[in-house]
Every structure is written in C-alpha cells, then in structure tokens.
Amino acid sequence: MKRLLLSFVMLALVLTACSKDEGQPANAEPKEPKTEESKQAEKEAKAEKPAESYTPKEVSYYEIKGSERELTEIEQEMLRHPGIFSSDNYDEAKVKEALDELPDNLTEEQYVEELKYLFTEDYHEELETLLTFDSTIEVDIDRPDETVNAPTLKTAHYAILVDASGSMAAKVGGKTRMEAAKEAVMEFAEQIPENATISLRVYGHKGSNSNADKALSCDSTEVLYNNSFEAAGFQNALSQVKPVGWTPIALGLQMVKEDIPEGTDDVVVYVVSDGIETCDGDPVQEAKTLVSADIQTVVNIIGFDVDNEGQKLLKEVANAGNGEFTYVNSEQDLKKYMRAQYEEIQKRWYEWKEAGKKQAYEIKEEKKI
To answer: Is the overall model pTM greater than 0.90, yes or no?
Structure first.
C-alpha cells in the first residue's frame, strides 16, 4: 500500500514539472527586472492619460437658515447630501462593485470626489445646531400671583388712602391714631420694591368735623404724593395730613383711579380708617367699580380701633374690592400688619426668583448637552 501511495506522489511531481516546461517557450529569454526609472515612467504615463470618459457627479447641499456669517469650506462640505452608501445603506458587496466601476485614469481629486459621493455621512443637523446655537439662557416663569398683597413688581402701584377725619385725633397708647398711622405707613413705604410706585391720598382733610363744614369736608380729597418712593418727599407729604374732618371713603376710592400711573398692571389699595363712611357715599359700589377696570386692583381696608358695626361695614368694602379687612386696635398691631404685607411681597418674589434660577439651570444643562 505504501508503495502505491509513493508511486502516485512521484507521478504528480513529474506531471507538474512537465507542465511548467511546456508553458515556457524553448527559446524564451528571462525577463529583466524593472528598474526604478521604468517604474516611474509607467506611473507618469498613466497619470498623464486624460480622463475623457469621466463625468463628475452632481452634488447637492443642504441650506442653513439663521447663520449670521459665511460658511467655511469645511462647513460647506459638511452640508453635502449623504452618499449612497452612507450610514445604514452600507453594503460591502455593492461598495466593491461600485469601486470597480470607477475609471482607472482618475486624478486624486476626482477619486476623492467619487468617494465622497459614495460614503459622505449626513452632518447637516449637527452643523445647523452649531451654527445657530444660542448660548443665552432665558427663563419663562410667571410672576407671583399677587392678587391681594403683592402685585407684579415692574408695574406695581401701591395706593395708600388715609382717613383725615377728626376722630383720628383720638389717643391710642399715648399717641393719636393719626400719628400711629403715619408711622406704620412710612415704615411700609420704605420697604416697597424700588421699581414700584406709591401714592398717598388723603380724604376729609378740609374744614372740620362740625355739621357746618360737612359739605366742605365730604367733598375733599387730595393726592399728596405719587412717584417712586423717596423718603424725604414722602415724609413731607405725610406731615401735611391733619385729623380734622369727616369720612368720605367713597370719594377717596373714586378718585384714586387718577393716581394710577399709565402702564400699570397691578394695583393694591390700602385704606387706613378709624370709621365708616360718614358722607352719604357708597364705598362698596366704588370698590366694585375700581376693581372692575382693566387694571388688576384689590382694596385692603385697615380698620384702626373701629367698633363692631364699623368693622362689619368696612369688611363689606374690602370684600367688594377683592381684598381683605384687617382690624387693628393699637400702633403695634398696625405696624405688625404693614410689616406682614411687606414680608409677603418679599416671600412671593423670592419664590419667583428661585423658580427662575431652577429653570435657568435646566436650560443651561440642555444647552451643554
């Protein structure tokens, strides 16, 4: 068996040698190896062949709107429409077939263009993000809902109406009601936001609280201050208020509309009084009229040492004005109330600011991504 296998191997070797000899002509001379000069000459000859049959591919580009500068060459190239074998369209067999179909005499630049036509990826969305990226961060948080105590800061107006009736001269804790009211109002005014405006209106400040002067006093109301807060000016206006006459609350509410600056969005009215309407007016109706206007307005009534009947009537006025009635019977109570109003304003704006900071952080993180 071994002899038979060895015979087959020997026969195969002989046949192989014979076939090699038959493939070589008897008089063939061995080829000389190519020199470096001949190789270079062939290369140059091939490169100089004109690409007569080559037709450049038509290239399409995406357009970017919103870019404020001219695109660079690289950026323009990144806007090319994707190649036929880009991304998920890649097919190795088809790629080889397409490459084989390319002419042999392409220049380097032409070959690169062909490769772009085949393989360019789609970058236009990413490039648009880069070119139109806005690094600014703007938040959109609604301002506090300050329907009662603290209106919108930029367009807020605080209207303070002070009762100048003769009963405000009564003593409470060593001071007159008027003195205590002035101190509390001044302390509140000092705390309002810088961009807000404030007005001081007095009513019933003319004549006296006698029957003879009733008509004069009931027809008297005057705005003594109306501007951004300035301590000296506001203090001077307060010093002019003297407790002398009757109590025309309705007239004060009716005329306070003239104190609201143009462009104001929200108004809070504070009425400081030690009694009810004594001039035959209808303060409930005037409060309703005031809050029914386009400007968001509320009317808060501060009853200073008012009896039970007076509290009931003043509460009706506050309800009509979408506000609140607060009874105070001392200077400390009055200051405490006005201070609480200021703290509520501060609280609402702190919450608004914190909400804005939170949203700004979230927007910043999105932009970073």
So the answer is: no
